[in-house]
Amino acid sequence: MEMMFQTEEFVDVVNERDEVIRSIPILEARRIGFAKLAQEGEYVRAICAFIKNSKGQLWIPRRCATKKVYPSSLDMGISGFVSAGESYSEAFAREAMEEANLDVRTMTVKHLGLLHPHSGSGCFTDTYEIESDVTPNYNRDDFCDSYWFYPQELIDRLPSERPVKCGLPVVMKTFYL
To answer: What's the pLDDT tens digit per position in 74-105?
Structure first.
């Protein structure tokens, strides 16, 4: 019988210029707190992506209530931290497969841009948009439901929607207003 061992996920800590300083376990980064890291001029990297249909609507999932971080929150379509030694594009492809069962190498993808931590996102966040009219076969361990919203409709809804995953309002206002 083959034994499976879960390895701890590490993330790169970067400086103001997005240059790697060191790597730490993601659990340690969460324990320290991203705001505390930022006070020291240190940041982590993340990706997010939205699926946009031909009507101009964005696919927005709701996180499961069992999630430790932002339970029951509206989320970016796809999001996650860039693992240590991984590029933004590699993290994007990995997260798209893990969360939405999408192989982005076979899809039309637009790079929207890189958000700086001081934009309000809290970390360096590389942002993408995937063209698709199909609701993805998303990971039921991550998400419990999903919706298609026009960008303005979602932006208007965010103030009354609690909780909302950190960064969603910033990303929406930056790329969709």
So the answer is: 999 999 999 999 999 999 999 999 999 999 99
